[in-house]
Amino acid sequence: MEFDFDDPSLKAALALHEGQERQGPGSRATTELLLDLAAPLPERPRVLDLGSGTGAATLVLARIEGARVTAVDVYTPFLEQLRAAAETEGVADRVDVRHGSMADLDDLPDGSFDLIWSEGAAYNIGFGAALASWRRLLSPEGVLVVTECGWITDEPSAEARAYWDAAYPLRSTGENVDQATAAGYTVTATYLLPASDWVETYYAPLDRRAEQTDPDDPHAAAAAEDLRREYRLYREHGHEYGYVGYVLRPR
User: Fold this and answer.
1) Is the pTM higher than 0.85?
2) Which of 39, 169, 249, 251 lies 20 to 30 Å (CA to CA) from residue 207?
């Protein structure tokens, strides 16, 4: 997926997320839980965080003993915030920041990472495409941890279905497991993120930020309204869809 960062609508949407800890649902507790599910890791693991955003997961991964983390994102302001946070938390020497696309990793050698991580970002290039393209980067005993939004009901409401069909067509957890298997992985664990990962650490802070947008800026106002619509949809239909963490090992 290509991004036009000069597009005023995209700029306004991204501006809402600048300064936020997270750019998608998740929490430190969930990152730590998924990390436990990914164990064991080798000593001094080589870690790749794809679609790192401002580094909420990166900073947790950098705490792994002996780890070296490469964080990749296409949006410079997020990476600048990540660098500052890594300095503040005292892990800057363990984090390499790379500006670029998660779809453009051809310069990275095969088998060069023991842990590949991607929270709420694989959808940018498609779940199946992401799994297929990232597999070569894993060491033989490596592990991929990725979160992906999907249906958690067999009968989603018409409103939720219409919204997601237009934004990013969702699949069920079973269908995503099938995609992972087809891409050459063994699925060793799945974990449904709790509602608090959507509301407390993502939507509530964003909603407060949206209240501060300039109502006379049409693009900012539209971005704020889109956020409110999405938040309302989750409050009313969040029991129908959710992010699931997948822990995958290459076969």
Assistant:
1) yes
2) 169
